[in-house]
Task: structure prediction
Amino acid sequence: MLVIGAGPGGLTAAADLADGGLEIVLVDRYARAGGQIGRQPAGTAARTGGLADAIGRAETHPRIAVQPATAVVALRRLDHRAGFEALLETAGTLHLCRTRAVVLAPGAREVVMPFPGWTLPGVVTAGAVQALVKAEGRLPWTRVGLAGSGPLLLAVAAALRQAGHPPAFTLEARALRDLVGTGLPTALRHPAKGLQFAALAGPHPPRFGWRVLEAVGSDRLRAAVIAPVDPDGRVGRRRTVGLDALGISHRLVPDVGLALQLGCDTRSSADRIATAVVVDEVQATSVPLVHAVGEITGVGGDEKARAEGRLAAAALLTQLAGHRSPPAALRRAATRWRRFADDLERLHPVDDDWAATTPDAVLACRCEEVPLGEVRRAIADGATTARAVKGLTRCGMGPCQGAVCSPIVRSALAAAGHADTGDLESRPLAAPVAADQLARLA
Result:
């Protein structure tokens, strides 16, 4: 059986499935298991906690074959008897893996909405800042700013302070009153998460309602222009802050490329920039013997991923190994965390107002160097979906395969009044491969 993704959800599902007697192949694109949540700071030898236990179980289990640093290039269903075939790439070599069933746990990726200067060296995602400080224990920069929206900013700011690099500023685009009004019911339903977010902010809360208007520099980032922006879009007094690096994150969205290859049913987010996989009460997708767990069903953190991983494993063991049906407690826990993910999505939407104020010259697609003005012209000329914009502008045709520009194009379409924006993630190959690799495979 194939489990894709060695984050909290994939690790939990793999270990429970193996404990139930199934042989598991666990693949992950990174060199170490644990996903982004499980990255260990440099020099850390001992692992503690639930996620560390899951990593240890997977790495030492006799029925789990872990394949790190392996990308899933393509995934297809053969037929109801033969199961599925995955095309995997490890160290530049392609190989095939056939499996009876699949657990999808590929995680999420960050969204950054464009602004003047966002392509300057030194402007990175907030997750990249966190990964760097965890991997190295230090940063190559002295002055680092954080901006965007969502709890990831709080986690990164806390990691920077712990590493001795307190951020120059942390800007949360949402106004405090909006967060309190929308988030209070969520905090009451999930008090532990509310306390966790409060602890992350601690004595250093972000500036609510503030945004980065421009990154300034020529050869690299030198400063950021920041200002408060009220809910009606009125910009307050601008300030210029000298910086060496700027970490931006406006949202986390599910990584659904492989699910789209299989034809799994999906749903669009309320802000229409993202797609999540639809699952039933036991994490089963619309494709038989394909279950999805973790951020791919809605971004909600490691507790959600582990709860869904346990439920998916129990359901598959019922179907494949004759175990009893999953206990009701597993179903209730997964349902509760899915509701938390829905609340989080409503709490930190991506507003479309950036599309009206960002200059035409700012790049929308960095790989193909497509400026936002070309996207606007494509929409004005009749493009109503992301794929139509791609055909007119080349957005999504570069090495990132639409991972960066798909939410941008979809948000621009939503701002123009188009409800069904489609996506740029569905494609026969989930990652670029060289032609000679395919030839050697044949």
